[in-house]
Amino acid sequence: MKIENYIDILPWHSSRQWSKRNESSINKIIIHQELGDGNIERVNNYHINSNHISEKGCPHFCYHYGIEKDGTIKQVNHISDITWHTKGQNTTGIGIMVVGNFRGVDNINGEEPEEVQMQALNYLVNWLRKEYNLPKKALYGHSDFGKPACPGFTIDKWIADYKTNDETVSNLLSINELQSKLKQLGLYKGFITGLLDFETINAIKEFQSSNSLQPTGFADERTCRMIIELSLL
User: Fold this and answer.
1) d(CA 227, CA 205)
2) How is the chain split into domains, by residue range?
3) pLDDT tens across 82-132, in order?
4) Which of 33, 47, 195, 230 is the Cys-Cys partner for 58 at CB 3.0 to 4.6 Å?
5) In what order do the strands lie in the sheet with 93-98?
6) Is 32 helix (H, G, I), strand (E, B) or coil?
7) What is the C-alpha separation between 224 and 219, in angstroms, rounded?
8) Topology of domain 3-164, CATH
9) Cβ-count burial of 12 within 10 angstroms (0-12 exposed, 13-18 middle, 19+ buried)?
10) How many Cα atoms sit within 13 Å of 123 on the Cβ side?
11) What are φ and ψ of residue 136, in 5° steps?
C-alpha cells in the first residue's frame, strides 16, 4: 500500500489557511467516518464552502488523511497543519477520515466499512505510529471525544482490538495470512485486519476443535501447519 499526496491536488479555500504546529506536539491519532455517501473530493468541496463547522468555510479537507471506499489512502493536509477534526484535540491529534456511512450509535441503518478500507486503516495507523513514535494507547475514535456515532461500531471495535492486540502469532503465518486462510476455510467471517481479535481467536478454536486439537485459540506451530495444509486442498 502507498499514501497518495493530495495536498495540492484538491482545491483550497480562496483565503483561509490552517494554523501550524510543531510535530513534536502530536500525541494521538483520531479516527472518524464520513457519515455520508461521498468521496474525499466531495467532502473537501463541502468543507471549503459554508458548512456546519464554519459558515465562512474551512481552509481545506478537515482531516490529515482520508481513506476511500476502494482503500486508497490520501494525505490531504500536512501533519503540521492544525485541522479542525476534533474539538479540543486539534493541536495534538492526527485526523483520519474513512469514507462511508457506517453503523453506529443513532445510525443503526448504516453500512459496514469495506475490507480494503480496514486493511488501509491498519496500514496507515501502523505507519503513523512508527513515523511519530506513538504507542498503541494513542489511538482513538471520535467517539472518545463526544461524537458517539463516529467512527461507528466496527471501527470502534477495531480500535479496541488494536490497542490490546498481541502482534505475534507464529513464525509460519502472519496474522493477515492466518485470517485469510481461516476465511478460505469458512471459519473466519471478519475483515483481514492483521489483528488477533476475538473473532480470529474463535475461528482458531473452531478449527482446532474440528481437527482433534486442543481448542486453545493459540495458533501454535502444529495448528498453523494444519491450517496451511488444509487451505491448499
Assistant:
1) 12
2) 3-164, 175-231
3) 999 999 999 999 999 999 999 999 888 899 999 899 989 989 999 999 999
4) 47
5) 3-5, 73-75, 65-67, 93-98, 28-33, 139-141
6) strand
7) 6
8) Lysozyme-like (3.40.80)
9) middle
10) 18
11) -60, -35
Q: Which three cell numbers stand for residue 147?
A: 461524537
Architecture of domain 175-231: Orthogonal Bundle (1.10)
Query: Are residues 59 and 12 in contact, defined by beta-carbon separation less than 8 angstroms?
Result: yes
Q: Facing residues of 95 across strands? A: 30
How many Å separate Cα 40 from the centre of its chain?
16
Grid cell at residue 113: 466499512
| Set of cell numbers at residue 44 | 473537501
For the stretch 137-178, pLDDT in tens is 999 999 999 999 999 999 999 999 888 776 556 678 888 899
Phi-psi region of 87 (alpha: psi -120 to 50; beta: other; left: phi over 0): beta
